[in-house]
Design brief:
single chain; globular; Aldehyde Dehydrogenase, Chain A, domain 1; binds nicotinamide-adenine-dinucleotide; 6-stranded mixed beta sheet; 7-stranded mixed beta sheet
Amino acid sequence: MTTELSPTLSHVSAPTMSYFTDKFFGHVIDGEVVESIEGGTMPVIDPSTGIQVATAASGTAADVDRVVASSRRAFDDGVWRNLSPLEKEARLHSFSRTIDQHRTIFGDLDAVDAGLLRTYTSFIEDFGVNATAYFAGWPTKLQGSIPPVPAGMNVQHRRLPRGVVAAIVPWNGPSAVVAMAAAALAAGNCMILKAAENTPMSAVLMAELAVEAGIPPGVFNVLQGTGQAVGSALVEHPGTDFISFTGSAATGRAIQIAAAKTLTPVALELGGKSPFIVFDDVDIASTAAAATAAVWSGSGQICTAGSRVLVQRSIHDEFVAAMVDASRSVKVGNVFDPESTLGPLVSQTQLDRVASYVDLGRSEGVEVALNGGLTGDGGFFHEPVIFTEVRNDMRIAQEEIFGPVMSVIPFDDEADALRIGNDIDYGLAAGVFTNDLGRSQRMIEGLDVGTVWVNTYQAGYPTVSYGGVKQSGYGRTLGEEMVHELTHIKSVWIAS
Ligand code: NAD
């Protein structure tokens, strides 16, 4: 590791420092951390300072061949899928426990790698531990069925693992993707986790802990590198059986086209531009605080960020003033300072992208209720911005910015709120804030999204399936639906 010491590292815990020091974040293949065949590397940058803190492998198509061969072997040899259901559960529970025991390291790594507030990464660690515990219980519950057929035949629907599952993931919650690995393994698959190039670190620890927990080497492999070099080669590789992609709509589209060559099935968890809809019967102060939290959390880099805030015209000005007020207490700063409430964006590229949207908003002539700008010394920080009097057809209202930028759009009545809420290519999630039960029911029915939250926002639990419609993708993450998606059905006819 050739790096100068980023000041952020002085805050990480002793166990993290001891794991991290001199660590090379390579591919993990057959239980070993390895370099790229052609020797390629990429820097791991701390978004709080812009300083390189570690080095990761950067693979090529040759590494993709190697990792797929390993996963294929592990699946075809049956080292995992042929274990008894109870044995698989025991090892997955052990995996979940060891993830729990290492939560401090995961939290620290995500804070250094993705620039997420340490208070926020605790939430991600909880999610990872809970989700792995939940999926660990599935091997004994995965059932096929016996459909009714005419006499003389016995038919079984056998539920079988897909095979080699490739998960290609983004950088905004690096440790949370352990849920995906646990689900794939619970269904009997082998997993190739293609980590995001901005956040290669926690995937390595996950795969190392899987082996420690008794999951055979090769069952959970990790591939490092860019989307162009290894992501696309993985998608086109004939040795994978299922692709689970989480990321932007543009990349999702490219992946679906590329996967058509081998007809590999794909599930897409894509972006959003979710409406946070506020009616005039709410408590203004608490709802305004929830609205700002829904965009400032994770510095806006959350797929379900409620970045289009639709406010009923009768309370518009008062509500905007309350959101500005709530945002005054935002403290941009050190991700390890418990007082900080807004951390950096993940990279210089992401910062430039957010800044360009802020310039665009200003040039489109909207009002600026909260005029945040670039801040921080060397890090990729951007203060919160609230645009008001935004028209829903403007680019700042239609496109996913993935930063602390909110567009406030006034509406007149329920029908208007529904029309504006649905008038977008995305369909990931929506929030409805009202004390009118009938109205909330009508909004639930009318909103064309994968998740509706009523008088709450961004609640989640491993049993609850999650996913989008329209250009937010298809397929479901979490819950029973995810385990089923990671299997296929073989129909067996037996003549009596
Ligand atoms: P991205 O699409 O740029 O990259 C995601 C992953 O895809 C990375 O690992 C990248 O290396 C890989 N990739 C890039 N090009 C590829 C290609 N041609 N073939 C194969 N792989 C390729 O997304 P990002 O910028 O890392 O993440 C932000 C996006 O992710 C946002 O749009 C956000 O909304 C979305 N997201 C969605 C969810 C969800 O559950 N719906 C969750 C988190 C993030």
